[in-house]
Structure formats: structure tokens, C-alpha cells
Amino acid sequence: MIIFPAIDLRGGKCVRLFKGDFSRETIFSDNPSAVAVKWEEMGAQYLHVVDLDGALQGETKNREAIRSILGAVHIPMELGGGLRSLESIERALTGGIQRVILGSAAVENPSLVQEACHRFGDRIVVAIDARDGIVATQGWESSGNVSALDFAKQMADYGVKTVIYTDISRDGTLSGLNLEGAIELSKVSGLRVVASGGVRSLEDIRAVKVHETDGIEGVIVGQAIYSGRLDLKKALRIAAEG
After folding, report:
1. pLDDT per residue over 98-157, tens digit each?
2. End-to-end CA distance of the chain, in Å?
3. Which of 129, 167, 171, 204 is catalytic?
4. Which residues does 206 contact at the CB level (< 8 Å), separation at least 6?
5. Most CB atoms closer than 10 Å: which of 38, 53, 164, 209?
């Protein structure tokens, strides 16, 4: 089980949004690389980085911050936000990113997913960001007009092995993880699932650990570690238990 500390980038700063609402932003640091180093020093083994500006505008925007993070840590990093062409995907993967996350592009251009999976295998991850069971796109501003479960099955058919499932209604709220939704997604599609959105305590981490055998690869933690509600070191110890 992997715990992915989240670093969301906007305007070169490390921020968190409430339910994906860009008007409800909290800035936690103007030095994202220092945040990345902090999580690595606490024992994190993988970073989850999202270019929020890129997600809205359809192309990578926080390049300097991303490069600074890559240069500051030694652990692998996955990147999402604005990666909507094979060229941008390849650029990221050859530039030091371990795996890329396709969101809006996967909904709007499924053939890109097929080609990317063919070329880069399991270094391609798809984000399934859902509001009331319907996939959202364009930085969560628009509806993809497809159910999360149907979309997951389609992605499995196209060669995807891992998806990140985020319940938007819980993201950044500290209201608890929608683990049931993540498990259902895995059962329906056969995909490995990283659960995201609403993690608030070690109990959420323990619950994910229990369901490792139900296709849950890991969990993304954000607001809880930034606010101090969740002790990342303790969470990592739970994740590492046999």
C-alpha cells in the first residue's frame, strides 16, 4: 500500500482547494520543493503532484515548480494536470516523472489513452474525478457526461492498469474517504485503484490497508497532513505493516 502526499500547484505555490473549487483556495507554501523534501524526510515513498493551472488551461503551466521538486527529492513522482498530448506525456516521462496522470484528455480523447498505454505501459494512470458518480473534466469545472463506473471499464479495455478515484464532494473537506466507491470501481473494472478525497485520520489509512486485497493500491493524502490532522509518519508505518 502506497501513501501519496499531494502537492497541488497553482501560480508556483503549494495550495489546497475545497471540493475542487478554485475560489476556495488555501496557500500552504510558496516553496513546493521544500514541501516535497519535508514529505520525503518523513518517509514518503512517492509524491502525487498536480498542476492545477495546467488542468484548467490544458497545458503544463507550473514547469519551474515541477523541475524544482524533481531536483530536490529522490523518490518517484506522478504528475497530472494539462497533459493532453503524446508529446507532453513523453516530455514528462523523459524529464524525470515516473508516471503521468491523464484526466480530461482521457475523457475527451480516449484514443490518446490507447496510444499512450501502448507506448508507455503502466506509467500511464487515469484520474477518475467524480461528482455524484459522474466524471468531471477541465479542472473539475465541467461534466464529462459519463458515469465513473462505465468510464473505468472503458479505460481497462484501453490498457490502463491503475486509476486514481477522487470523490470531488469530499476532496479537501476532511470529511472521510469514500472507500466504498473506490472498492466498487475496482471490482467493476478490475483496475488497481488509488483512493483520494477527504482523508482525515489514521482510521482512513487503516481502512485502506484492510482493503489492499480489494484492488486498492494506495491513498492520496493532502489537507489532513497540511493541517496537521494526520501524522504522516504514523500513516506510513500503518501502510508498511505486513
Report:
1. 999 999 899 999 999 999 999 999 999 999 989 888 998 776 665 667 899 999 999 999
2. 10
3. 129
4. 238
5. 164
d(CA 196, CA 182) in angstroms, rounded, equals 9
| Rounded (10°) angle between helices 32-41 and 63-72 | 30
Pairing assessment for the beta strands 47-51 and 21-29 based on DSSP bridges:
unpaired
For 219-242, the pLDDT digits (tens) are 999 999 999 999 999 999 999 986
* Cα 180 → chain centroid: 18
Q: Report residue 41 as a C-alpha cell.
A: 524526510
Q: Return the residue matching grid coordinates 502526499.
A: 5
Q: Dihedrals φ, ψ of 228, to 5°?
A: 85, 5
**Would you call 8 a catalytic residue per the annotation?**
yes
Tell me, what DSSP letter sits at residue 213? G
Catalytic residue status for 132: no
pLDDT tens for residues 189-203?
A: 999 999 999 999 999
Q: For 118-182, give the DSSP string.
A: HHHGGGEEEEEEEETTEEEETTTTEEEEEEHHHHHHHHHHTT--EEEEEETTTTTTTS---HHHH
